[in-house]
Amino acid sequence: MKERQKRKVLSTSSTLPDSVIKPPPRPSDRLNPKTIDPFGVQSRAPSAFAAIYSKGGIPCRLVHGSVKHKLQWDSHPETLHFDPLLITLAEGLRETRHPYTFVSTEGFKELLLVECANQKAIPLLPRLVPVLKTALAHSNGEVFERGLNALVQLSAVVGPSLNGHLKHLLSSLSKRQMSKKFKEQTTDALQKLEQYGGKESLSIIKSKIPTYCSISS
Prior knowledge:
Elements: H1 2-15, H2 28-31, H3 48-54, E1 60-63, E2 70-73, H4 82-91, H5 100-111, H6 117-121, H7 125-136, H8 141-158, H9 163-177, H10 183-197, H11 199-208
Helix pairs in contact: 4-5, 4-7, 7-8, 7-9, 8-10, 9-10, 9-11, 10-11
């Protein structure tokens, strides 16, 4: 009788698909969490930024340092066309995976540091602002922070030229300012937007965020 039950159990186990029969977890699994396999059948489709980066469409690469990472550009950033590179890097701010988060954030910042960056960035504002708006409205807090930092960096470069587009960005900042976690960051960003945007920016900010306290008050 026992022999018959044993054969029945073995027979049932042999008919189960491999996906049902799972090996017991190893202790090392907790120390080495699984990463996304880019060649896996079930891995999600790459984002637009990831696809462009993997094809060499971003003219820089990540260099891993012992203390911190940095970007190595194929050509000096001053020689690069901002259109569409700056917009592509801004789109990458919505990424949540390494190395895309670092490349997009650092690339956006370094591109805006080049000489005559304002002349190159100002014509792109009508296309750049909607991309930043999407990052600022993202549900992921880290994406919002990257978008906020990028907005301040852009404002420092283009100055009052951003004022005509500012109202499209303030609703997301207003919502985050009500959060204890982001209140200080958004207030600091608003003050910098006022500083770089001049007197005109204050009335725009006040129209969307009446509780905002001016840096001049």
